[in-house]
Amino acid sequence: RTPVVATRDAARVGVHLDLPATRWSVAMLPHHRTVLNVFQPQYTLLFEKLLAQPQPWLYAHLQLPGGIKNLDNPDYELRPDSSAALHGTLMQVVAVQREADS
Prior knowledge:
Elements: H1 3-12, E1 21-22, H2 41-51, E2 57-61, E3 89-93
Parallel strand pairs: 1-2
Antiparallel strand pairs: 2-3
């Protein structure tokens, strides 16, 4: 099997092998809805690429203390011996409204 087929087969049973991830400082809980204003350059491209794909638009959220200011902090790298959260919440974009740049 090719990696694409393996990823598709895993997703059919609820296992997602390759998801984009956000790391904001807020907690996001399953089955809740929230409105996001995505303006950080780190995430603008992530969501543009996500929305260019067919639905469902899924991504993972891992809470990061301090938010994007700690993205480059070695203490919060995504590795087992760091202070980073290594599990999070599966998220789905259900609606999009683009705003003009201010």
